[in-house]
Amino acid sequence: MTVDDYKHAVASHCESGSVRNLLAHGGLQVSEPMIFGIGSGPAFYYLFFARGPSGLPLVGIRMPPGKILRNFGKLCGIEMFAKQYRSTDEALEAANALIDEGIPFAISVDMFYMKYLPSFLHVHAPFHFIIVVGREGDRYSVSDPYSEEIAQLDVEDLRLAWETHAPLSRDNSMFRVLAVPEQVDWIAAAKKAIAKTCKNMLMPPVVRNIFWFVGIEGMRAYSKKLREWPDQYAGVKLREGILMSAVAFEDQGTGGGAFRLMYGAFLQELANLAGSSHFGELADRMIEHGRFWRDTSRMMIKAGKTVPMDDDAFADWIAENRGQLDERLAEIGDRFARMADFEAEFFADLRAAGSTLGRGD
Amino acid sequence: MIIPEKADKLSSPSMAVMYDADADGKCVPTYKTAEFNEEIAIYYEQRAMELKRLHARLLAGEISPIGFFVEHQRMDIKDVAARARLGQSAVRKHMTPEGFGKVRVEVLARYARIFDVALADFFSFVFVADDLEVATERHQGRLIQQLKIFAGAPGADPGEER
After folding, report:
1. What is the CATH number of the domain that holds B89?
2. Which residues in chain A have their CB less than 8 angstroms from residue B43's CB?
């Protein structure tokens, strides 16, 4: 049994891509950047207390899982069903009933068990969004924005991925579209979303001091901490940490430049909708910033590649090359500090522009 | 654990939807080869080397099979403990050879689910020559694992792969 008329399409990001595909099936055509922007997607978290797939402290560059979907649905008047089932058995029962009715739905799973994806994506990230669109016995058909085609998932893998008990996971949760409005006031929704994004990134001074690892302050902290990596990590861990941080910023579902290019595309689409040249200029600035981030990731790749792949060779290598590695990381750190300064200024400007959006330039 | 002699390789370029400004300055998505595809390919080589290193540490008695999989899958103890519904100190203990010897089968089965392996993978390493393929079947909640080893020639019966 497969949901009729469901059209699978690839996307940059699993959550915004899944929402786009679900909405398209529900009758609302909207671009992925609009979902990301109105979902208040951009963020920065330097989660020094958690270890990320790179092996270094976890860095978040977008809102926590599920937030984009909820924010977008709320601001655009999408009637959504969201439920976290108590057990996988209960969730599967509900899933099977929906498939029988021909209704697609999104779930949040651990990407590690998605065997149809290339193995470098088999990381324990329990917040990967996919859409379930069919079932044949114990095999489920899933629409994953990272896969070119509809993929197959065994029920055993689905069970493992859907209920992990991992921190940040949304075990056995299900989302689906109940109804879409005939018309969406994109400008009104975008205004509210922009205000929220700017608030999250800038934060009031007192909050900023407490949550020094979030938003602009988080970027500043990251710019300082990355210089200390050679003191804290060695060998393959250091090499992989630097390389995979860059890959995560650029290639792991961000659309490039740590989601900033996709946010630029959102601002551009908004500028066209509102006929605002000022928003067009803001979009250009954000796109340029995304490109700067992309170049910074390229520099991280160059720095990471200098570290030997063999742990046994590391001691001699670092004794000889520590100064050079420190210089490279200092340069990258300086670029992150510049990016933090840029975002501080940019989101302040965007907040001001957002309040007058739709009133003409 | 089954370790193929040939390193796991990136079989085709890694593709992603990437945004950038076109000639008119419009920021558009393009489905193309990932920016760092080359580095992703090297990552596979690194993982193969990492596997050898961890295997050597395991045989030297520095880590237990639990420690092997925690490190190999780049997990942190907090995450593993939450998933296994155990305390962090218990996981730390199980990551040592001494502690591993005292893990109950029921707890081991929880670890097996997290790492997506069979219980047998905690106790044996099967090195598979270049010209051979292995198909695995797991039964009874991963307590039993059946391996079919066959020549990797075209037309060979791979059995039911899982």
Report:
1. 1.10.260.40
2. 120, 240, 243-244, 247
